[in-house]
Amino acid sequence: MHNKVVFHTMKALNSFGFPVLRFNFRGTGLSEGEHANGAGETKDVRAALDWLASEFHLPLIFAGFSFGAAVGLPAACGDARVRAVIGVGTPVAPVAGESEQPREYSFDFLHECAKPKLFISGARDQFGPRAKLEALVASISEPKRLVVIEGADHFFGGRLRELREAIELWMKQAVGCEPER
Description:
This protein has five helices and four strands, in the order ααβαββαβα. By secondary structure, the protein is α/β, with parallel strands linked by helices. It has a single domain (4-173), classed as Rossmann fold, CATH 3.40.50. The chain has a four-stranded parallel sheet with strand order 1-2-3-4, sandwiched between helices. α1 (4-14) runs parallel beside α5 and α2 (39-56) crosses α3 (67-77).
């Protein structure tokens, strides 16, 4: 919730006047509950979408970073209130922490997702190898866009401005939004 990638993604969306909700998944930081291997965290995303819809009565744009993209994209693609989705640092290669087995995520649901989709990755993202991400994006339904930021790793170190600009440009072109002045 407090990392630089999530912050810059939030700032990009907020510049269009969208209220943004950043949250920790269950068992992270000071949040209650325990990690639930993705299934429970997808429920967390659905609860966040419900809250945003009831609080603001606006079309929703979903953006998730890394694990947040892996568990949030399925929830957002299946939700009629969500107008478009963004996956930042989408983990298309097995991901393992120091003391756990590698986690692999399925993105098969994207073949049926007709919403505008933006994927942003660093060219050196260890969890989103360029060839695998390109193959995934090539295989899914339109509309879609893949932006690979040269020189960036999974956390976009030194390339956060490019991340933000890519989101802002896509919001104008694909979603038809204009930033607030």
